[in-house]
Amino acid sequence: MLYAPMPKPTTCLPGFLLLTVLLGACQPPAPQPLQARTVALGQATSVRVDVPYAGRWRVQERPEWLSVSPQAGTGPVALTVTIDRARATPLKANLAELSAEIKLAWSAGEGSREKTGEVTWPVTARQFELRGRVVAPAQTQGNDAQAAPRVNPAPAPAARGVIVKYRAAAGQTGVRALQAAGVKVSSVQALGGTLTRLNVSDVDAALRTLRADPQVEYAVPNALLRAQGTLAQPVVPGDQYAGLQWSYALAGYAAVWRDMEAGSYSRPVTVAVIDSGVRFDHPDLKGQMWGPGEGALDVLDFEAGEKAGDPPRYDNGDGDGPDTDPTDAGDAGRTTGSHGTHVTGIIAARWGDHGASCEGCSPTGVVGATYKANVKVLPVRVIDSRGDATEADVALAIRYAAGLPVTLKGTTYRTPHAAQVINLSLGGELKAEAARPLCEAIADARAAGALVVAAAGNGYGTTPYYPAACEGAVAVGSVTLSGASAPVRSPFSNAYPQVQLSAPGGAEPYSANSFNGGKLNGSAFPDAIFSTDWNYKENRPMYTAQVGTSQASPQVAALAALLLSKGVTTGAADTLARLNATATDLGAKGRDDLFGFGMINAAAALNAPAVSSGLGLRLQHARGQSFQPALDPLGRFQAYLADGSYAVIGGTDRDSNGVYGETHELRDERQITLGEDTPSADVGDLNPR
């Protein structure tokens, strides 16, 4: 082996200085910080970021609408940033570019040479653009044009008797012919010549009889006509807390309550509330329910101790077993309110002044959906004072509420007021096999003619809850206000294939956002459902705000009852069909797991008169988010949105609920998909008709 000779040094260095130089040359370089970097996604969904680095790093902060993977590492930074634009898009959809920051913590070196720090990486992402214009519907005169028919229109208002024209004055024998046919004639009024108005008990039968009479030239219904070009005045309740009950306005009840003033909701309907029982002594509920001796029932058992003086093995809260008094019992130690009382109030709380029942109590309180309709609640108690209910008790209660006999402790009970509608604001995460007793009871109730409505569950997920998921039940999800012209799904509301309808159930009571505009005790009222309740500590009535599918379900039950009471429908099947057909489609087009067929619309279902005539835009992402871009004076809009599919609807609002272009309203709709292949779209003119 050959060695190159070392050159002779030209100068002499002191030994200690040479050692210092050699030691310095052997030390590693000083640790370097992680450098700043701008992450520009453009219009992509994900981007790969590679940054040379010698050290340790981890993602410390990021917005919820950005995901970063992996979250930590050693050595070069190699991660993927993914954006969920829909979650980042503001309500007004007015940001062409989204921006945020990712904060990373870093450390390099060891021991005394270790350095640590933080670095912020700006992130930018361009949005996709949607343009269009909402054009006011053309004003029509005479027979120039006609609005397109709405989906599954409600029956026309019932005629008030018949008008008959006889061929000769001497031939006016129609009254006798009608009486002979069993048709009652309550009054007769001459209209001039041989024209006569008859008020009759059965319009169809009267027309058949009269038209068969050779002396009758013609017979027609005495049809109801309404003024065109004018709006009915909405009914606004004057009860103290009615202004906080935003859910009724969202469902179109301002128009429905005006419709009720005509007195056409006269058919008797019973809604069973299978729940924790009810407080019959709540002043806002007196007279609204079937009570003890009228069909109300407590199915809960009571198990005494083994011997005298022992505490009971099971006490449902009222100290006795099954009986006809489903009062939601409790004492000063009870910390919860009355769930059944809250649910019942949503359906049937009475209107107007009922007198203050205690010092400081409201003399008017809240209102219920059914107002002047001939609807009563049948309370059936299955939830004990601890909030628990068993499958067996609920199955018994379902059959009982539907009018079937049940035997409890050797006594057979059968209600004299079988329910046409049954509400179940209860449920649990059961397997389908374990839920068979509930589902079989629901099948029996449907066979008996009852429509069974149930809460879809508050599990924040996609697991089916029973009994809502039973075949034959109507599973109801919850929606809440969004600040846009369409509601959104409540975060807690379970989404699964059996969800059939949605109704207002609110958002978390302490949510940072509140869109209803109400105030309670000087503070912004949360987007929650306000209804009747009971204060057990003070043993007095109260009113509380609650959220959940438990609050959404009775709103569907109440509307079903109103359809039956008005005579729009006559049984469970056509009532459900009507609810589905008139619901406001939300999210993906058609039925979906998030909303079912959509949010119920009482005004559409009941063919209530128009109380408003606003024109606007409804913009919905298929995932359920709603956005509200501004319209300029010419109706034009420009929205910056996430990738995905959208329903773009221009329409009118005839029921004053702020939702444009529902099934009973003028509308023009486009389905648009935005993405990297279609970064912008122009829907042109939306012409509601």
TrEMBL record:
The keyword Signal applies. Residues 162-222 form the Fervidolysin-like N-terminal prodomain domain. GO terms for biological process: proteolysis. The active site is at D275 (charge relay system), H339 (charge relay system), S550 (charge relay system). Residues 1-24 form the signal peptide. PROSITE patterns: SUBTILASE, SUBTILASE_ASP, SUBTILASE_HIS, SUBTILASE_SER. This is Serine protease. It holds the Pfam family Fervidolysin_NPro-like.
